[in-house]
Amino acid sequence: MESYTIATEAEKSPDFRRVLWTGEHTQLVIMTIPPGGEIGEEVHEVDQILTFVSGIAEAKVGGQTKKVSQGDLVVVPAGKKHNFVNAGPNPLVLYTVYGPPEHADKAVHKTKEEADALEEAGKDEPPNS
């Protein structure tokens, strides 16, 4: 059995992205976005659900914009352009579930730049892709 006190796990990770668990159909990832930082505008071929643990963000999904904060959850359907920008003075901490997996199992990306470089190099592919 995998079990997490997810808010605590997310809050103690300084990494931009850390894959906690990968299953056949879903993947659990924690993220920390520094003040002024962002996830980066992107479109996935998978569904994504993001839950915000701390901080304030400007959520942009499918042409709509909304402020989100601790306790909020945002659904990003596959194919929707999206971005999440840290709009506060503190790190933005969240966890996200992808269905199916989007990243390499056990991937740890210290920074957004590292994550982007690995994705561009084809070194952040989900299992069975």
Automatic annotation (TrEMBL):
Signal peptide: none annotated. This is Cupin type-2 domain-containing protein. It comes from Spirilliplanes yamanashiensis. Pfam families: Cupin_2. Residues 106-129 are annotated as: Disordered. Gene3D superfamilies: Jelly Rolls (2.60.120.10). Residues 30-98 form the Cupin type-2 domain. CDD domains: cupin_Bh2720-like (cd02223).
